[in-house]
Amino acid sequence: GGPLAAMRWAVDGSADGASAAWRPLRHPLRAAVALLGCLARRSSADEGAVQGTVKYLWPIHFSSVPLTAREKESLDAPEMGDELASIGLSKFQEYLRSTLPQELKLDKEFAEEFRAMDHSRVNIAFNRWQKRVWAETTGKSVEHVVQHGERTPPRLEGINYTWPELYKSKVFKHLRQRVAELARLYNRRSGHAAGSPATDGTRFRIYTWVEVFQIGDALRPSSRTDSAYMMGRYFPVAPKGTLRLNFEDPRGINPPYGKTFSHNVYDGNLVLYPTWVSHFITPNMYNVSAVCFCFLVYPKDGKTLAWQDDKSASLVLTRNFSVSRKSARK
User: Fold this and answer.
1) CATH 2.60.120.620 at 63-316, yes or no
2) In what side-by-side order are the strands of the sheet with 260-264?
3) Does the pLDDT of residue 75 top 60, yes or no?
4) Rounded to two decimals, what is the model's pTM?
5) CA dihedral sign of residues 198, 203, 207, 211
């Protein structure tokens, strides 16, 4: 039950359908191959039917939930989203106006990187500042939220790394509780055992950051491999048609692959998906701001999830079906 869904990509085993052709996989996290297997056996309930199974191997577990939507039944009231969006947008505007110019003056290496970036650069810079805010607010090392291969943002003299309007707000604390609840359900659906650390919502470390998409803003393709259970995005304000969240085919770009799954986000929408799947956000073509609260859900002790324990990368969905013996003879 629940408003959760899986995105599945599949191919047939062989051209004539007689047998399944297997090829070695280069990397299990980037594989999305499906096997249609018919395991025939007599049914004790119906002697005239044969039972079989369909298995979808390595599908991408994508979940979408109406958290604070206005036009459909949701988990929480839309006013919660309005308050969170106001907090996020206000700090984003303050960051653009005063903090970012100071950072570009004080950090020459970052200034050079910023000049060479695309239309994702403002949100990337805002996230960079928020990592320091998270570290100073929680007392944890900033290394806990720095991606592999990413330069650790230095602590710059004269920059304010506090955000009490967010971290002390009741709505933000409630959002984190909701994220933990939904993450627990997501992990159970991905195959983690009940009662394990992955399904105990009190044992998560959650890093949350805000992105704001003004007219022309977008987010370039990215993925992460830093030992989080999952990634998610909550859009408290995303007017219809402003943004699309797209996922790239992990099987590669060559035909018959190279597919793109596009999800139209809406006000109050929350989505969950594996960290390793490449995703991007299309440009906002409207003169209205869309606000997104992004989050990574880690084990309690941080980056401790080994790749072989990532259930989202080895998910197998099984469905049963029946075939009439009489129909098969025709």
Assistant:
1) yes
2) 219-222, 279-281, 244-248, 260-264
3) yes
4) 0.82
5) positive
